[in-house]
Amino acid sequence: SVPSVLPVLQKARENGLPVLSTVPDSAAEDITTVDFSHGAVTVIGNEGNGVSKEVKAFSDRFITIPMGGKAESLNASAAATITMWEMMK
């Protein structure tokens, strides 16, 4: 079993970092418009279930990767790669 990520997220928040969860939801904030210049912690969910309910409840904001064409979702490694790229821009 994997230990809970919540204590890590709590520590990040205590240090002034917002917690952003990636979700496949067009109502979420488009990742290409997010200002990451002040830092953030992003959570990538797994392919089957996404981000856990507990992490969603803890999240400050929800972000999404815009999808073109017929693709409905990305695997976690692809989502993480795109997210890290956007954070470093």
TrEMBL record:
GO molecular function, one term: RNA binding
Keyword Methyltransferase: yes
Gene3D superfamilies named among the record's database cross-references: 3.40.1280.10
Phylogenetic classification of the source organism: unclassified sequences, metagenomes, organismal metagenomes
EC number: 2.1.1.-
Swiss-Prot/TrEMBL keywords: Methyltransferase, Transferase
The name this protein goes by in its record: Protein containing tRNA/rRNA methyltransferase, SpoU domain protein
Any Pfam family the entry gives: SpoU_methylase
Domain tRNA/rRNA methyltransferase SpoU type: 4-85
GO biological process: methylation; RNA processing
Gene Ontology cellular component annotations, sorted alphabetically: cytosol
InterPro entries, A to Z: Alpha/beta_knot_MTases (IPR029028), rRNA_MeTrfase_TrmH (IPR004441), SpoU_MeTrfase (IPR001537), tRNA_m1G_MTases_N (IPR029026)
